[in-house]
Design a protein that fits this description.
One of its GO terms (molecular function) is class I DNA-(apurinic or apyrimidinic site) endonuclease activity. Keywords: DNA damage, DNA repair, Glycosidase, Hydrolase, Lyase, Multifunctional enzyme. It catalyses: 2'-deoxyribonucleotide-(2'-deoxyribose 5'-phosphate)-2'-deoxyribonucleotide-DNA = a 3'-end 2'-deoxyribonucleotide-(2,3-dehydro-2,3-deoxyribose 5'-phosphate)-DNA + a 5'-end 5'-phospho-2'-deoxyribonucleoside-DNA + H(+). Helix 4 (about 85-90) crosses helix 14 (about 255-265), helix 5 (about 105-115) runs antiparallel to helix 12 (about 210-220) and helix 11 crosses helix 12 (about 210-220). By secondary structure, this protein is an alpha+beta fold. It is globular. Among the domains are: about 1-70, TATA-Binding Protein, CATH 3.30.310; about 105-210, Endonuclease III, domain 1. The protein contains 14 helices and 7 strands. A 5-stranded antiparallel β-sheet has the order 1-5-4-3-2. It has a two-stranded antiparallel ribbon with strand order 6-7. A hairpin with a 2-residue loop joins strand 4 and strand 5. It binds a DNA duplex through helix 6, helix 9, helix 12 and helix 13.
Length: about 270
DNA sequence: ATCCAGGGACGCG
DNA sequence: CGCGTCCATGGA
């Protein structure tokens, strides 16, 4: 087990931030997470966080995953103090992190997310993993990994509709096919240095539009300028930023600001 | 019942 | 390009 003391890090807030749909608070201050084919149990008491894994797994996998080496207080310090809305939002969600999740998993997950609510997205993703993911064991915990493209290719559109994916089933089938036949290369998308290039490539996938592409760029590729505009963010922009969001000021950190706003809208009061 | 949820494809003018 | 319309599903 690894024990570390961290600033601006809250498992509860990360869990409720809506980036990862397979993280659960299983008991008070105890969280379980399945990411890709990895399972992790964590506990937190104040700033002290316990990761139930080896040193190697922590350093190679979970440090980048949780963006642990980044200093989020410096992001918060950049917020215009006269922007009372954004200041309140960042204070509310000061412990969230921009996760670095698996690209393939984020593509499928955010295809499912469209015109859908978070609790139902969780259910859809979980059923998808149970039906097509590899069964794994970590200690005494059994879980299903997120299915890789080859395994998901076994699912027909009707199969996926049977799992409650609705009209998104066709997007999943078509996107899986274009990845498997090499039309779109995940490796290439990983290697693009510029956000606009990665986004441009993602937009070629069936069912991936502006918003979903931005979520994938932010939550998998860590392109911190991605600024996904969903229905909640749209309302905030219309109400608090009628002259546009201050993009210049927050260049290189637009994504985290978006997440502070998103978290605030879902969890305030 | 009606509305809404981390939207996007498609057709139309 | 900007705009309607349709697309499943379940909870409030």
């Amino acid at each position: 087990m690894i024990t570390v003391e961290l600033d601006n890090f809250s498992l509860k807030e990360i869990c409720q931030s809506g980036q990862c749909f397979r993280m659960y608070e299983t008991e008070e201050n105890t969280y379980e997470l399945i990411a890709g084919d990895q399972y992790l149990k964590m506990t937190q008491d104040g700033g002290i966080v316990n990761f139930h894994c080896s040193d190697m797994e922590f350093i190679c996998y979970w440090v980048p995953y949780f963006d642990i080496d980044a200093d989020y207080s410096s992001y918060i310090a950049k917020i215009n103090p006269r922007d009372t809305y954004l200041s309140a939002a960042a204070e509310c969600g000061s412990g969230i992190r921009i996760l670095q999740q698996d690209l393939w998993e984020m593509i499928i997950t955010f295809l499912i997310s469209q015109q859908n609510n978070i609790s139902r997205i969780r259910g859809c993703v979980e059923r998808l993993c149970e039906a097509y993911g590899e069964k794994k064991i970590s200690g005494e915990k059994e879980y299903y990994a997120f299915p890789n493209p080859e395994r998901l290719a076994a699912a027909s559109e009707d199969d996926l509709r049977g799992l409650g994916m609705g009209y998104r089933a066709r997007y999943i089938v078509e996107t899986t096919r274009s990845i498997l036949n090499g039309e779109i290369s995940l490796d290439r998308i990983y290697q693009y240095r510029y956000y606009s290039r990665a986004k441009q490539e993602l937009l070629k996938l069936s069912g991936v539009g502006e918003k979903v592409a931005d979520c994938i760029c932010l939550f998998a590729l860590h392109h911190m300028d991605a600024f996904p505009i969903d229905t909640h963010i749209r309302q905030v922009l219309d109400e608090h930023y009628k002259r546009g969001f201050p993009n210049r000021r927050y260049r290189g950190m637009r994504g985290i600001m978006q997440q502070y706003i998103f978290y605030y809208e879902l969890n305030k009061k």
